[in-house]
């Protein structure tokens, strides 16, 4: 069905829907596209590989805009990507060899971890805002005093760890990795949230290419469905970002948690059915 014009139209609409949610909830489309593809009977490893097409398109679009505006820290992006492209190959290699049930259960765990990481991101953003407004050291009770060194020099160790982890997750699960990279960059590199988002997006361009190359070699990428999802996601994200200001933070947070919990339950049930069947 997905290889027919009707299937492509459905995927375009589905991509727009995931794009709206992505722009609304502030998470990468890969976290939404992968479970959506499995609903149509696509094996998880193929859903992961196909999702990277959309991740690549969206990251290129955003990075070009940031580059033209002079807002892309290309040095940090390249360093993150240098480590991420290696582990993306490892993640894609593992994804092609792990049972579908194991991948489904691991993906469910990633969705739950994402909830925590997004909460961490919000706390870091608030801590940075308070630090900038008061121009004083952060209170010790925040446990985020590292943020007082906003101008700290680049540290190769944290960059290597962040880039490597993002690459592994990208290749293994078909996600961009920004949901992990952004809070870790804020925490360990002292970047502001806007800088971290732009830097991670730039790194994801190369990381997604690396994962796509390995998955293409393994024959897992469904190119036309991936392009339909990616194009729809890019359109939908514009609508999501425009809708976001009209909703309260509490509403967005509740929607975010409920939606990811629902997806996690779905992926866990999928894993159980795999082992039972």
From TrEMBL:
Q: Name one Pfam family in it.
A: TauE
Instruction: Determine the domain of life of the protein's source.
Output: Bacteria
Q: Where are the transmembrane segments?
A: 7-32, 44-64, 76-95, 101-120, 168-189, 196-217, 223-244, 256-275
Mode of membrane association: Multi-pass membrane protein
Keyword list (alphabetical) reads: Cell membrane, Membrane, Transmembrane, Transmembrane helix
Q: Where in the cell is it found?
A: Cell membrane; Membrane
Q: How is this protein annotated for GO cellular component?
A: plasma membrane
Q: Quote the PANTHER family the UniProt record gives.
A: MEMBRANE TRANSPORTER PROTEIN MJ0441-RELATED, MEMBRANE TRANSPORTER PROTEIN YJNA-RELATED
UniProt lists the family membership as follows: Belongs to the 4-toluene sulfonate uptake permease (TSUP) (TC 2.A.102) family.
Q: What is this protein called?
A: Probable membrane transporter protein
What organism is this sequence from?
Thermocoleostomius sinensis A174
């Amino acid at each position: 069905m997905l290889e027919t014009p009707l299937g492509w139209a459905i995927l375009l609409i589905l991509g727009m829907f995931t794009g709206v949610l992505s722009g609304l909830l502030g998470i990468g489309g890969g976290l939404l596209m992968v479970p959506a593809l499995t609903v149509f009977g696509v094996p998880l490893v193929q859903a992961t590989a196909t999702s990277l097409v959309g991740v690549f398109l969206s990251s290129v679009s955003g990075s070009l805009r940031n580059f033209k505006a002079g807002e892309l820290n290309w040095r940090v992006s390249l360093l993150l990507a240098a480590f991420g492209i290696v582990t993306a190959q490892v993640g894609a290699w593992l994804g092609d060899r792990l049972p579908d049930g194991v991948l489904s259960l691991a993906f469910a765990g990633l969705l739950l971890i994402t909830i925590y990481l997004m909460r961490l991101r919000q706390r870091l953003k608030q801590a940075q805002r308070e630090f900038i407004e008061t121009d004083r050291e952060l209170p010790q009770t925040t446990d985020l005093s590292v943020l007082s060194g906003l101008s700290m020099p680049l540290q190769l160790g944290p960059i290597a760890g962040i880039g490597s982890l993002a690459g592994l997750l990208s290749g293994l699960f078909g996600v961009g990795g920004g949901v992990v990279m952004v809070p870790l960059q804020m925490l360990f590199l002292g970047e502001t949230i806007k800088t971290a988002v732009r830097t991670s997006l730039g790194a994801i361009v190369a990381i997604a290419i690396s994962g796509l190359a390995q998955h293409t070699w393994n024959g897992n990428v469904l190119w036309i469905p991936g392009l339909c999802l990616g194009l729809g996601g890019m359109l939908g994200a514009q609508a999501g970002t425009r809708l976001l200001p009209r909703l309260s933070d509490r509403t967005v947070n509740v929607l975010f948690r409920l939606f990811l919990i629902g997806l996690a339950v779905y992926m866990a049930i999928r894993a159980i059915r795999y082992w039972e069947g």
